[in-house]
Write a structure and sequence with these properties.
Blueprint (H helix, E strand, L loop, with lengths): L3 H10 L22 E7 L5 E5 L6 E6 L9 E4 L7 H11 L5 E2 L5 E5 L9 E15 L2 E2 L2 E6 L16 H13 L11 E8 H24 L1
Parallel strand pairs: 5-8, 6-9
Antiparallel strand pairs: 1-4, 1-7, 2-3, 4-6, 7-8, 7-9, 7-10
Length: 221
């Protein structure tokens, strides 16, 4: 008979031998969209842009920050979401445009917190309160705005309208300028709307629908 201690060690080690893929292997949460699990790639102190490698699920260096852009919040994405047809349709409806499509990436999220967190590649519980409707070269690239659950400063906010204007302006400014590189062509990025909680919920639901259509539907065929 296997010694009890060795049996316990085996059970403790092997279930965690393979970590979950942050995009495909993490559940958004049973209370979504009101409370979501967010995967954080980048924190405000990072001087390098990190990005999830979609194939391996590992965090990789995308590029060093060439200028003094500082991320204004924790930044990452929502697992098992995708900005595709349904997200693009909603953006087109709200902007009155006919040529907008989803950008083909997971739904981005900015998580506000008073705490200084030293690195990304972690999961946080977040409460969506609104979002930025960003259109990047005719692709819907929404940024959900959320607060970290139980945060002492931001945790009580229920809607983006309660958030200080200076915080929202900092987010707007960052995303309107972070792709500008002197000497290179202009990258057309627009933020057409700042929307509230209920609209953020709709974007999240649509991104979940897009994910299921792209990945779960393909699995069932």
């Amino acid at each position: 008979m296997r010694p009890p201690v060795l049996h316990w060690c085996r059970m403790a080690v092997f279930p965690s031998a393979f970590r979950a893929h942050p995009w495909h292997g993490v559940d958004l949460g049973k209370d979504s969209p009101a409370l979501v699990t967010a995967y954080i790639e980048i924190v405000p102190t990072d001087t390098v842009k990190y990005e999830l490698d979609k194939v391996t699920g590992l965090l990789k260096v995308d590029r060093p920050q060439r200028f003094s852009n500082v991320y204004p919040s924790l930044y990452g994405f929502l697992p098992r979401t995708l900005c595709a047809d349904k997200v693009g349709e909603f953006c087109a409806l709200k902007t009155g445009r006919t040529n907008v499509i989803g950008d083909g990436d997971p739904l981005d999220i900015c998580v506000l917190t008073e705490k200084s967190i030293g690195h990304g590649d972690l999961l946080v519980q977040a409460i969506p309160i609104g979002g930025l409707r960003m259109v990047d070269n005719n692709e819907a690239d929404d940024k959900i705005i959320a607060v970290m659950c139980d945060d002492a400063v931001y945790g009580g906010f229920k809607d983006v309208s309660e958030c200080p204007e200076s915080v929202i302006e900092r987010l707007r400014h960052y995303f309107l300028t972070y792709k500008h590189v002197p000497g290179e062509g202009v990258h057309k990025v627009e933020i057409t709307h700042i929307y509230g909680r209920e609209e953020a919920y709709e974007v999240i639901r649509r991104s979940q629908t897009d994910y299921v259509a792209a990945f779960m539907g393909a699995r069932d065929r």
